[in-house]
Amino acid sequence: MEARELRALLEQVAKGEASVSEAERALRTAPFTDLGYAKADHHRGLRQGVSEVVYGEGKTAEQIAGICRALADGGQKRVLVTRLDAEKAAEVERLLSQGKDAVPLPFEYRDLPRLGILGGLPAPDGDGAVVVAAAGTSDLPVAEEAAVTAEVLGNEVVRLYDVGVAGIHRLLAHADDIAAARAVVAVAGMEGALASVVGGLASCPVIAVPTSVGYGASFGGVAALLAMLNSCASGVSVVNIDNGFGAGYQAHLVNHAGLSACCGKRTGERPTLRWSLEENATRRHLLSEALLHLPEARRAQVRADVQAAGVPDAHHHDLGEVTATIDALRASERVKGNMRAIYRILAEAEAAAHGCSVDETHFHEVGNGEAIENVLAICLAVEALDPVEIVATRVQTGAGTVVCAHGELPVPAPATAAVIARGIPVCERCLPGERCTPTSAAVILHFVDRFEA
Q1: Mean pLDDT of the region 303-323
Q2: How far apart are the first and last CA of the chain?
Q3: Where are any strands of DSSP class E within 248-386?
Q4: Confidence band (pLDDT; 50, 70, 90) for 213?
Q5: How many CB atoms are closer than 10 A to CB 252?
């Protein structure tokens, strides 16, 4: 039994949905079962949050099957077996499925990562997504070991494969996936440069995995290991050579930190939403940062609610037209109220920029259906998360020029600058391009409770 299962059981007892006797029977299992050749640990899930994993290399099929059977008999719903070859896996499956001691759980073997899974995959329940990035196809066995480990432990995994530095444009095409991740596993052999590049793009922990892929001077992965240990990018940690399991496990811990009782976050507590805006403050980035705090099922529901709300694919010329559309949306009054406030800020900014009244403002890019849909999605995500407060870093406005309906304008655009002037602190160092738009600035001004110093 894992900590989350124990909490669910105790909550059932508190609500009267389970009896004390039922709970007692569920908790009666001894801390471990002594098999002679192994001691199957039944309380590891309670102590560490993750149940015991079986290392298959060096064990016989009979020993692996015996440990899996003991763990399943002790109430463990799934067992992961690492470093398991195909021949041994077939024998393990036969031993678990036949005879009077057959285990009533399915067994699946994944050949590429050499993993056996007894009991199937759970639904993802982490804080967000784990990205697994592999430099080359030769790194896939290790990358898949990390990815499948994370999935078995209850994480949504985004795979980015063959994105090494020999063609860095392949990695940069997935910059949004990296920005939205709660943890990134970077898998690379050769010179191991991928981890440092990812570390320079991600705002979350990066777990680097050196692989033994490479020619003679790679020394079986030692070259990549040393390069990763010497990474200039902050936030990069390194596991052992070819240790995909360890990286996937560590990524799981990061992705479930907000759900862990040991971190002071209990089920039912309202979280704090933090927007990291020092490099990007666009609508899409704000939405990604809000969604990554939600479990996958809630994120899917937000996306479905956006599609069902009925935003017309049409241009809205002024505040009155936008307000009429918001009023007709199939959304809660809380969401509509937030949207009205955001577009009021936008109208006031346009009026300040053009020297006219709010009623005389004319919306261009901010009035199209996509912009309204983006604002709706952000408001729905904030409603689903229901944070106790929203905190943000200083905002990156960008630098250079932007081409819009009024021609080529300096960044930040006049309407963006008008919103920022109302109390949004900005970064002193400006990155190239438009990093904050009028709409995203209005969202930030409306929602953020406080800015970090």
Answers
A1: 90
A2: 43
A3: 272-275
A4: very high
A5: 23
CA distances from 414 to 389, 419, 420 (A): 29, 9, 10
Distance of alpha carbon 447 from the chain centroid: 22
- Give the residue-averaged pLDDT of 110-132: 90
Q: 387: Cβ–Cβ under 8 A, 6 or more apart, which residues?
A: 270, 271, 272, 273, 293
The C-alpha torsion from 371 through 376 and 378 to 383, rounded to 10°, is 170
Whole-number Å distance between alpha carbons of 371 and 415: 15
Cα 153–159–165 angle (5° rounding)?
Answer: 130
Range name among 44-48, 107-111, 145-149, 326-330 with the lowest pLDDT average: 44-48
In angstroms, rounded to a whole number, what is the distance separating the alpha carbons of residues 36 and 34?
A: 6
- In degrees and rounded to multiples of 5, residue 409 shows phi and psi of -120, 155
Q: How many residues does the chain have?
A: 453
Say yes or no to pLDDT of 26 above 70: no
What is d(CA 182, CA 397) in angstroms, rounded to the nearest whole number? 24
Instruction: Report the distance separating Cα 158 and Cα 199, nearest Å.
Output: 17
Read off the amino acid at residue 339.
Answer: M
